[in-house]
Design goal:
- The complex is a heterodimer of chains A (574) and B (324).
- Chain A contains 13 helices and 27 strands.
- Chain A has 574 residues and is α+β, with helices and mostly antiparallel strands.
- Chain A folds into four domains: 227 residues, P-loop containing nucleotide triphosphate hydrolases (Rossmann fold); 79 residues, Beta Barrel (Elongation Factor Tu (Ef-tu), domain 3), CATH 2.40.30; 108 residues, Translation factors (Elongation Factor Tu (Ef-tu), domain 3); 113 residues, P-loop containing nucleotide triphosphate hydrolases (Rossmann fold, 3-Layer(aba) Sandwich), CATH 3.40.50.300.
- In chain A, the strands form six sheets. A six-stranded mixed β-sheet of chain A has the order 2-3-1-4-5-6, with helices on both faces. A six-stranded antiparallel barrel of chain A has the order 7-8-13-11-10-14.
- Chain A is flat, with a radius of gyration of 28 Å.
- Chain A starts with 12 loop residues before the first helix and ends in a 16-residue tail after the last helix.
- Chain B has two domains: 188 residues, HUPs (Rossmann fold, 3-Layer(aba) Sandwich), CATH 3.40.50.620; 93 residues, no CATH class.
- In chain B, strands 3-2-1-4-6-5 form a six-stranded mixed β-sheet.
- Classes of the chains: A alpha+beta (574), B alpha/beta (324).
- At the A-B interface, helix 1, helix 3, helix 4, strand 2 and helix 5 of A face helix 1, helix 2, helix 3, helix 4 and helix 8 of B.
- The complex binds guanosine-5'-triphosphate and magnesium ion (MG).
Amino acid sequence: MSLHSANEHQDGFSTLVDHHLHKDMLRFTTAGSVDDGKSTLIGRLLHDSKSVYEDQLASVSKSRVNRSSGPIDFSLLTDGLRAEREQGITIDVAYRYFETPRRKFIIADTPGHEQYTRNMATGASTADLAVILIDATRGVLAQTRRHAYISSLLGIRNIVAAINKMDLLEYREDVFRRLYDDFLALAGQLNLSNVVGIPISALEGGNLVNPTGRMPWYHGPTLLEHLETVPVRAEVHQEAMRFPVQYVVRPDADFRGFAGRVASGTIRPGDAVMALPSQQMTRVRSIVTYDEAAAEAFSPMSVTLTLEDEIDLSRGDMLVTPENPPTVASRIDAMVVWFDAEPLAVGRTYLIKHSVRTSRAKAGAIEYRVNMNTLEQEPARELKMNDIAAVQFEIAKPLFFDPYERNRTTGSFILIDPLTNATVGAAIIRAALPAESSHETDWKTPVSAGEKHLRHGHEPALVLVESRPLLAQYLDRALFAQGFEVALVSGEDVPAGRLADLLPLSQSAGLVLIYSTGAISAEQKRALRLDAVRTFDLTALNLPEDDQGAVSTAVAALQSLRIAEGPADAGEVN
Amino acid sequence: MAYAMQGALQQAVAAELQNPAGFAAPKRLNHLKTLEAESIYILREAVAEFARPVMLYSIGKDSSVMLRLAQKAFFPGKIPFPLLHVDTSYKFPEMIEFRDSYTREIGAELIVHKNQEALDQGANPFALGTQKCCGLLKTKSLLDALNEGGYDAAFGGARRDEEKSRAKERIYSFRDPLGQWDPKNQRPELWNIFNSRLNKGESIRVFPLSNWTELDIWLYIQTENIPIVPLYFAREREVVVRGASIVPIYSQNDLLPGEKSQRISCRMRSLGCMPCTGAIRSEADTLPKIIRELLGFKRSERENRVIDHDEEGSMELKKREGYF
Ligand SMILES: Nc1nc2c(ncn2[C@@H]2O[C@H](COP(=O)(O)OP(=O)(O)OP(=O)(O)O)[C@@H](O)[C@H]2O)c(=O)[nH]1
Ligand SMILES: [Mg+2]
């Protein structure tokens, strides 16, 4: 059958093969607002690093479309769809593959247009590095912030802030410094690490592959030099073992193997493993592959395991290290990026696919939505397309998860609309929430205030609103929508002098009591003796004039009432 | 200056954090094994979630790799889906020979589908033009075969590095009940989580080789010793030089009026239908020679496929009509 022979020895050939097999690989994505020059940058990078075939370049040069001011519109090397060329924008991710003597690269060139944020998230989800472009003539825009936010959420560890179109501003150092500082401030707010700023001209190729004489004040690496040398994330095999079971291989009655991809950690024959959700314990008998029985399996290998005992295990279950199991919970809190034109509605049931397991999940309270202009948290009753928000979910089958920073596979899921089957959102798990019906207690035990607070998920407090009855009403709604237990009391019903009588009750019931009154003097306030309870005096908060702004500021302040749950570091994503 | 220093410092700190001293050097899967692991994951995922998957088997190098990956994914079990070859009847005889003997050897179930109606009416690229011929013998034939089999998922060996519209495609490529691709409205596809939910009549084309390059394919064939059609290896062949293409000749009937055949050392870089796939001049008769030759190529592998150049964006148009 085989005409060829694999064992042919030619001088240096095995070295060549070896070199290719062991080269580092870096996956990176472009990001930034529409027209900032992402596709031009990628086209130019490919061209200048001699990674474009002659016939592909020829087809681009003779294209009818050219929106650039140069002889070749390099953006056409990745904007390959007809609609993209007609409209002059990128619509969906283009994946390009190239290599230099030092590294292999997979590029995802993503769209900047807000309408296609879902496609940017698609490209960024598998990236180790993001090149975020900033048009020097336009600076940091809301869409730049959105993409930076998504990059941070997705855990992209390396960021290049590419200040582009320097040619339009005389290659001025002060322009670069100002915009890079703007971006660094943003990066600081988002906990983005390893940020490197490079001034470039994608159009001319300046500082992409070759340095440019136009910016003698810049002494840092060119983009390609940086991409070739930035440390690549090493797989961490010391992490706790997670093996989601993908498929049961059962060719005959004698063989029962569990096929899957190692999500983290290392597996060896003889290792003790626990099955979830059954919690049954067994040992790994062997690691079966087509090539040979393996002595160990680690992430991201796809293997088949046989086990010592016949346990209950099927697709969607997980084998884990018994000493260090994942969190198991059916109520969770996640950061969601919403993709669908149909808004996410509180109370609606969606399908979630977590690793290889699909279950139903009800969207609970929206804790907050992130305002992309201010990056502040604001209340929301539903999520519109491209919104990013913290949302609670109640899941039909418990999830087994780890914090996303530690495990991308077990820390993330997608949301599917059960009616349209569309992929409507992506989510990063933050923490488990306490179970709705808390563990059984003796029926004679009195209910403590602490138990109530825990169930509500927040501490009680008093909120003082003076002379803004509408604001009090809006705040009531906003807090309610976020799952707070609230009571709104008007000064007309309960005069200030009698407020003190009400407080012990609202405190032990665990309520956030909004007290809406006319203006009261400092003297009167002291008489209320409010120091006994946690009080938010909105007058002291210097709220904005407009009600909407005032509500979001107040709600943001009240987030400090929430009771943290789950692993201490799980809430840190943002 | 300050900025450069800052960057270098940050990198050094990051390197230290990511690989702190005292930790054992992290194990790493080599490049091909990493690609292999991803492809196997995709194959298993689709088989677990779809009711009736099928593999489009085109007999070329990419199909050979995909078939080996399927053997690996379900080992020690058999490949749990049939292979479908859409036969235009214009395939090289070596391809058909290889298809029949190799699929028999590995015990795979093979389905061959032809658009007999169109062939009976004499469909051929010379009379119809390549676009129309492809539409009838490939796209229509494929859609009919998928319909008849009631397949809800079809594996294809397409790679993103092949062509500019393929560079845009998801690993799970959603198709409407008419098999059409809507490139402006693809499902988001984050991480390695695939949405396989479908309504009646809809289907997914699954591309396990999305992230492989032409070089990866050849290196894998070399390291895994995977059998491929002999047409990929150079030897002297009877050919006719037609414009810029070198077309193999099997009988004098293949010559157009006025043409003369000659013997040239050549091989195929990519395999399609006889009238529309050109050979390249080459002396590369072994895998190492092919791989070395590939590293020196200045033009893409699809350059010798007439159908891709009918007009700008022709691959995209064909895909929108249901081609894979
Ligand atoms: N002067 C100048 N123009 C540039 C530069 N880079 C890009 N452009 C132009 O900016 C316009 C937009 O470039 P694209 O590369 O399509 O931008 P993009 O970021 O990919 O846009 P989307 O993908 O649609 O978000 C084109 O007209 C480019 O020629 C540059 O460095 N200097
Ligand atoms: Mg673009």
